[in-house]
Design goal:
394 residues; 0% strand; 16 helices; mainly alpha
């Protein structure tokens, strides 16, 4: 049954999610830990099994998993409006911070700034850390390691947006063939307060935008249509979270001249310093391209697929999650994500950031601070900016 959506409940969702949006550093896995502590342990808005099922669903869908989990919890608490408020609260703080950062950068020659070079080296450490963590979880056996290697080679040698999609689809097919008889644990029933009709409408909108936006883009010369299409497509095709959106967005905007690679990587590194979802990187890119209005447009476009998918999938998840063939395909897709990440680590991040022995040494220090000393990401970013400034003096 859908919970009563009174004003008090909605305001509570907005307040709690905003506090999480201001304090949740550390990336999607850390966000899930924050959600569990606040929503499940402290407030008991969902039971442990329901939360685990929701996390499983969001890991299988394209888009930012932590944002989708937050939306799902809000929906369970107070329907669709509750999901929308949970999303706004968790996302808005980092969107505002990154729009302001982009506006401050305007008028500066970022390509020669030492602190920018430091932030680019931070990106090396952060993505390398993501590669290690995801490889451990998503490629535990030889077959999935082979899928990851295929994705790495394919995306590195043929660097187009279509290659990314093709690799993901082919990896899903291979995963289906290898793991279609994979044994599943017994799972309990799980119900959401969303009708199948609403779910079907959301899924139809998701695919409708994905198919017709490129057509509209070709029929018009409006820049905002082109921007919306690029960000929407990136948000629709990303399996594995915010780190994987990097190569998709880089290949959408840097080669076409919408912004420089230096500005792109500076914003990506700055995104590590703010709390909330990594997908808010789009707010920075949109602001650099077309002012704060562009930042808001990019944010809506990149998150809209995630919102439509979670609302569309919730009513059907209980049936789908029992299907071993679907899970097998998704195991192959998740393995491909690891290869795409390694490809992105080499190009554009490594090739444009590690230019000398001192750059490599500094990257190793930052990586150790992040992985072994387990310092918070904002400390790594601040150290990177200061270190880059000092290195530039010599």
């Amino acid at each position: 049954m859908e919970k009563k959506r009174d004003l008090k409940s909605l305001m509570e969702i907005l307040f709690v999610s905003t506090r999480l949006g201001l304090t949740s550093f550390g990336g999607p896995v850390a966000h899930l830990g924050y959600f569990h502590e606040e929503y499940i342990r402290r407030r008991k808005w969902m039971d442990e099994k329901s939360y685990a099922d929701l996390v499983a669903l969001c890991q299988f869908l394209p888009g930012p998993a932590s944002s989708q989990v937050g939306i799902g919890i809000g929906v369970m608490r107070a329907g669709v409006l509750g999901g929308l408020l949970a999303f706004i609260g968790f996302t808005l703080p980092s969107v505002i911070a990154l729009i302001l950062f982009a506006l401050l950068l305007q008028g500066f020659d970022v390509s020669t700034a030492g602190w920018i070079q430091g932030l680019k080296i931070v990106a090396v450490a952060v993505v390398a850390h993501a590669v290690l963590g995801m490889a451990k979880n998503l490629t535990p056996d030889l077959q999935r390691k082979a899928i990851a290697l295929f994705a790495l080679v394919g995306t590195l040698l043929w660097q187009t947006a279509f290659t990314q999609v093709g690799v993901i689809l082919l990896s899903g097919l291979v995963g289906y063939l290898i793991y279609k008889n994979h044994q599943l644990d017994e799972e309990s029933s799980f119900h959401f307060p969303i009708s199948r009709k609403l779910g079907t409408i959301c899924l139809a909108l998701f695919f409708g935008f994905l198919i017709f936006l490129p057509i509209v883009r070709e029929m018009t010369t409006l820049n905002w249509v082109a921007m919306f299409d690029s960000f929407y497509r990136a948000g629709s095709l990303v399996f594995g979270g915010g780190h994987v959106v990097l190569p998709l967005l880089e290949r959408e905007f840097v080669p076409t001249g919408w912004l420089s690679e230096e500005a792109f990587l500076a914003g990506y590194s700055a995104t590590q310093a703010v709390p909330g979802p990594l997908f808010t990187f789009a707010a920075y890119l949109g602001t650099v391209i077309s002012g704060w209005q562009g930042g808001l447009l990019a944010t809506v476009a990149v998150f809209l697929p995630a919102f439509l998918l979670i609302l569309g999938a919730l009513p059907f998840w209980d049936v789908l999650r029992r299907n071993s063939k679907i899970k097998g395909a998704l195991m192959g897709v998740n393995a491909a994500v690891v290869g795409i990440l390694i490809s992105a680590l080499y190009h554009p991040i490594w090739t444009s950031s590690i230019l000398s022995a001192i750059d490599f040494a500094f990257a190793a220090i930052l990586f150790s601070m992040l992985v072994y000393w387990k310092l918070p990401p904002w400390v790594i970013v601040l150290t990177g900016a200061i270190g880059g400034t000092i290195i530039a003096m010599f």
